[in-house]
UniProtKB/TrEMBL annotation, chains A, B:
Pathway: Amino-acid degradation; L-phenylalanine degradation; acetoacetate and fumarate from L-phenylalanine: step 6/6. This is Fumarylacetoacetase. Its EC number is 3.7.1.2. The active site is at H125. Its cofactor is Mg(2+); Ca(2+).
Amino acid sequence: MYADHFSIDNIPFGIGSSEFHSRETVVTRLEDTVFFLDELAEAGVFKILKDETVKTFSEPTVNNFAALQKSEQLATRKAIQALFANGLESLRSLPPQSYSSIAETRLYLPLAIGDFTDFSCSRDHVLNASEAVFKKRELPPGFEYFPVGYTARTSSIVISGTKIKRPKGQYRDGEKVVFGPTRRLDYELEVACVIGKGNKLGDSIRVEDADEHIFGLVLLNDWSARDIQGLEMNPLGPLNGKSFSTSISPWIITLEALAPFKAQAPKKNPDIEVASYLQDSDSRSSYSIDLSASIESKVSTDTICTTNFDTLYWTLRDLVAHQTVNGCNLNTGDLLATGTVSGTTAESHGCLMEMAASGGVQVSSGKGESLKKMWLEDGDIVRLVGKAGPGVGFGDCKGEIVAAQS
Amino acid sequence: MYADHFSIDNIPFGIGSSEFHSRETVVTRLEDTVFFLDELAEAGVFKILKDETVKTFSEPTVNNFAALQKSEQLATRKAIQALFANGLESLRSLPPQSYSSIAETRLYLPLAIGDFTDFSCSRDHVLNASEAVFKKRELPPGFEYFPVGYTARTSSIVISGTKIKRPKGQYRDGEKVVFGPTRRLDYELEVACVIGKGNKLGDSIRVEDADEHIFGLVLLNDWSARDIQGLEMNPLGPLNGKSFSTSISPWIITLEALAPFKAQAPKKNPDIEVASYLQDSDSRSSYSIDLSASIESKVSTDTICTTNFDTLYWTLRDLVAHQTVNGCNLNTGDLLATGTVSGTTAESHGCLMEMAASGGVQVSSGKGESLKKMWLEDGDIVRLVGKAGPGVGFGDCKGEIVAAQS
């Protein structure tokens, strides 16, 4: 699946193992075939690279590769592209432990993640969320000045495909506060950037230099229990409504693969003078990435959101500059996520909460009719998909809801 | 200093090095002398312990020791106490690399910290904060139902003594939003528990079992830039107003050392029925720990807060139960902090914000007069001290404010 996301122009990085390569190490992918970089090195593919680069291919996370100089990462990409230049058929002579089909590969969380910040970059999402919760379309006070965000849990970040257990918590039921499994389980369609090279505590990263610190991007589903979140988040933000699980896609798509899809971010509010550290001389610092979410239930599969990354008010470069302007240090493997990516139309709302006010999202009943769905049910599979353009995509990030602990 | 905090009844754990023991490994302390556990093992002190326990003494963090069964940790404590039983003079025969004076020991961040949650356990603090910000004494909606908290940054957690650079950020100046060094730099007097044994994603820890998962406690200063925090925290909570630095004390004080100082937490609001997972059969599940904060400026040193841990509405056991009730997994080394520990009187306010409405905190001018201080200035040293009782204390957690990056 998604073979057309992984052409020679993509060259993603992840962590995998297979029957013939039982150790979890760094992998890449061409169409539906996964390649183990440590074995390609053995086969002489990476003679041009430094030893310290090749060493990172044998590790159980992509972190040390992501921390390398961009020039070494680029040389790796080019060496892999040279290997792939004559197509998959030409690669059958490689040793059998050096590749496996995607169906026969097990993929793992590709990163050791030290910190995870979830920002709120979509103007449409925050307006829709404000309407859903407060019945008025209001931006948070800081929204047009800087990317508003919160620190999120890292221990419960899981790889796509991991089942998501319905969390328990406290929430309002009319005037009463009750405890039980969430009744308002939601997904959030997001993208996160993976930090490559970090910065020292006390230093800041200029917005113009931010790309030097971004290794690549992943899809991220910020599962949310809206009722638990609603009671707890005033005034310190969400905690138990979010911390039960966050899913990311297995493949990290590099900035180099995404470069042809650079795009302009929406115009900023001209009445607000943005602080100097967020004034980016590169006007095309966003990316055009088609994003979608679907729900597969027992009776039907429905695409419930189609949107694009380039609708986001703040760019990934802005996130890096803002997060470090106070001297906060980023480490390799940290995630900075965009928050829900929503567009202006009802078809482009990146979470269910935004649809709740209008009675839910339209799905098929499985009997040729349609009905409205408010929240995720046990057994639902949510699948996020991202594709930048021909041959370059993220594949998917999926998770199935399972019943709460009894 | 603080020799009387570290009697034979304490036996704290930390990470240190010295001239004769250059590797950073696990240390304990008796009065003003620090002992390297790996060298004590070489000297035959820990023959009773399992090999895997002794191995943890050579590591650069306390994590693996903290993850052991409590029985092994207790056996370690008892073996150290047996060694110390005849006083410091009796220990001069130990090899010179096995100990050093506290003045000649370098101490390090004792933990690899995966996640850090900062809760808000003090009723007085939230009422005072509400008054300072909103001019009304109101509890957050969830406060009496569960410990409200937020996920905080781990990358910028530093060891006591590390200088704290004044952060830059955006904040309101009248009607305008401006960017610059914070004008409202504050400290927060807190205590955090260190997670020993973790739990699996999807599982919960019962409040009655929480002590099995708490290795010990540290002092924590949650440095806060109130102006930056004020603009950003609606609705997702604090980010850049906090993430620039958090200090912790070097010594982890175990629950065993604190056991004699167990105390009753304040009575809960009888009108609120607390959820079952927060009903603790142990009514003495808090601790009596005297806490203080002082500011040393160029002209004077003033104690600006004296309070006690036992004033907190929610206990550390409550924090563990609440954080995991949604299936969130805790890992060894995670920190769960109490939030600012304030009492009912003006002398027991654990941060400057609570004093701002009344014109600031009273300090000496250095010329026999007193004046009011609103916020921290460059050069100020904030020192937190915690002492549970005779022979058992935390020492201090200090930090000096240095000027913002030009």
